[in-house]
Every structure is written in structure tokens, then in C-alpha cells.
């Protein structure tokens, strides 16, 4: 068996730090809507229909409804998701935790609460809560995917891949799940396998920009910098392509600096893997 290079520990730290946030961000394709786990609680009220798409404005609208009636499950769900979308993750956890106490059997709230815990770095708690948000007889592939990311964050990579496999049985070739699986391989430095999986995701017409960004990162980590930059640029507008390439170069440059550190020294690495925050 070939010995690992001396800097393998630094590379592992880089991969772990860079990928954990990326895994979580890619889990459901981000917060493009206010119902990214199991769907919002349905309502025919004019209030629900009037909620704006802009997350900050949605936080204001739902926040007013929530403060008027903290036991309003729909308001709590919308407010918590809007808080997540605007980066107020600790506040989202607090709101959704109280909502699940008031509505212990509401699976939509449990799913949103688990996702908020995952966003906030509470991996074990997130996994436990998400397990209550669906059942073996009625599994939700989105929740399975996020459960996989929490297991990856706890370094339970083989177990995580079982959850991704279960999700893919429900939605074969789903790009967000494949992206999570690819990043899982990245965490264990199985870079060729990570690349192959991310290329499968990238080939899907439904793949979003983060799949491309994750693929660019994995290709760059294998030393193919020119190819990584080409992938990062893609068909993006010039300013966005330039920003992506600059960020990729910065990350890989920091990785190289970490590799040159003495064994056991603390590495300082970026933690977004080209992804923008949720």
C-alpha cells in the first residue's frame, strides 16, 4: 500500500473544512424558495398568497404574523425559513424549536427545524430531528439527503452514503443528491470518485451553479487548475465567472499554504467551496 504524503493530514483538514459547508449548502439546492424541505404548509388565505419572494421582505411579513401569534404553525415555518435564507441561523433555530414544541407532530416544522440545526452546525441534533420528520414507509428524499450531510459532518461517511443511496432510489440521478455524494467522497480524499459523481450531477439539465462549482473544486484539488477554471467559468456572465475563478484560486492557494505548514500546526482554510451561503 502506498504511503500517504506527509502533508496528507493538512489536505484532509482542508477537505473537511472546505466541504462541510458546501455539503450543507448543496443539500437541497439552497433556499431558492421558502419551502425547501417538505413544502410549505398549504393555505388558501390571502395572507399566505401575499408573501413576497424576497427573503428579507418575507422575514418581515412572516415575522409580523409570528409575533402576533407565535403558535401559528404556518407563520413560524415561513419565518424560520426566511431567517435561514437571510443568514440568521441561530434565530431560525430558536423560532422553529418553539414551533415544534407547540406542534410536536408537524412534520414540515420538524423538517425545517432539522435543516436549521444542520445550518447552525448542530449535526447530531439535526440528524435526530430529521429522523422524526418522515418515516420509513413514507420517506422524503430531501430529508434523506440532508441526513446524509449531517452524517458526513460527523465523519460517518459510509453511513452518509447509505442515505444518499436511499434518496437516489426515490429520485434517480437527482443532481443535488449526487452533489452531496460527490462531496462526501471529497471528504475522504477519494477525488476521482468524487469527480465522477459530480460529473454525473453536472450532466443533468436540472443541476444548478453549485454543482459546477463543486466539480471545479474537486478538479482543482487534483492539480488540473486550467480545467478547473474552465468549469468554474462555464457560461456565466463575465463578472460572475471572474469572481468564481478568483475564489477558486484563493482556495487552492490557501490549500497549498496549509500543505507547507509543519505537521500538527493549525490550518486556516476557506469554508465555502465556491458556494454562496444559503
TrEMBL record:
Q: What GO biological process, any one, is recorded here?
A: protein O-linked glycosylation via mannose
Q: Which UniProt keywords apply?
A: Signal
Under the heading SMART domains, the entry gives:
TPR
Bilayer-crossing regions: none
User: What ranges does the record give for the region Disordered, renumbered to this chain?
Assistant: 253-278
Gene Ontology MF term list: mannosyltransferase activity
SUPFAM superfamilies linked to this entry: TPR-like
What the entry lists under PROSITE patterns is as follows: PROKAR_LIPOPROTEIN (PS51257)
Residue span of the signal peptide, if any? Answer: 1-25
Q: Which InterPro entries match?
A: TMTC_O-mannosyltransferase, TPR-like_helical_dom_sf, TPR_rpt, UCP035836
Q: What is this protein called?
A: Uncharacterized protein
Whose protein is this, by species?
A: Bradyrhizobium lablabi
Amino acid at each position: 500500500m502506498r504511503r500517504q504524503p506527509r502533508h496528507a493530514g493538512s489536505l484532509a483538514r482542508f477537505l473537511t473544512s472546505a466541504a462541510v459547508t458546501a455539503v450543507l449548502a448543496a443539500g437541497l439546492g439552497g433556499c431558492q424558495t421558502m419551502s425547501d424541505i417538505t413544502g410549505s404548509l398549504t393555505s388558501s388565505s390571502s395572507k399566505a398568497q401575499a408573501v413576497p419572494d424576497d427573503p428579507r421582505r418575507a422575514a418581515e411579513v412572516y415575522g409580523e404574523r409570528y409575533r402576533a401569534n407565535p403558535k401559528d404553525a404556518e407563520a413560524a415555518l415561513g419565518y424560520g425559513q426566511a431567517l435561514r435564507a437571510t443568514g440568521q441561523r441561530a434565530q431560525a433555530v430558536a423560532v422553529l424549536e418553539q414551533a415544534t414544541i407547540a406542534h410536536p407532530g408537524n412534520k414540515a416544522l420538524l423538517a425545517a427545524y432539522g435543516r436549521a440545526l444542520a445550518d447552525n452546525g448542530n449535526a447530531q441534533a439535526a440528524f435526530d430531528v430529521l429522523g422524526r420528520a418522515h418515516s420509513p414507509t413514507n420517506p422524503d428524499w430531501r430529508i434523506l439527503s440532508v441526513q446524509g450531510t449531517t452524517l458526513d459532518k460527523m465523519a460517518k461517511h459510509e453511513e452518509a452514503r447509505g442515505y444518499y443511496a436511499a434518496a437516489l432510489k426515490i429520485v434517480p440521478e437527482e443532481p443535488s443528491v449526487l452533489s452531496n455524494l460527490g462531496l462526501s467522497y471529497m471528504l475522504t480524499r477519494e477525488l476521482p470518485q468524487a469527480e465522477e459523481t459530480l460529473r454525473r450531477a453536472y450532466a443533468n439539465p436540472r443541476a444548478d451553479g453549485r454543482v459546477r462549482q463543486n466539480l471545479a473544486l474537486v478538479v482543482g484539488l487534483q492539480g488540473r487548475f486550467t480545467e478547473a477554471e474552465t468549469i468554474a467559468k462555464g457560461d456565466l456572465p463575465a463578472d460572475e465567472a471572474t469572481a468564481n475563478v478568483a475564489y477558486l484560486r484563493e482556495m487552492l492557494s490557501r490549500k497549498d499554504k496549509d500543505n507547507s505548514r509543519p505537521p500538527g500546526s493549525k490550518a486556516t482554510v476557506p469554508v465555502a467551496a465556491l458556494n454562496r451561503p444559503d
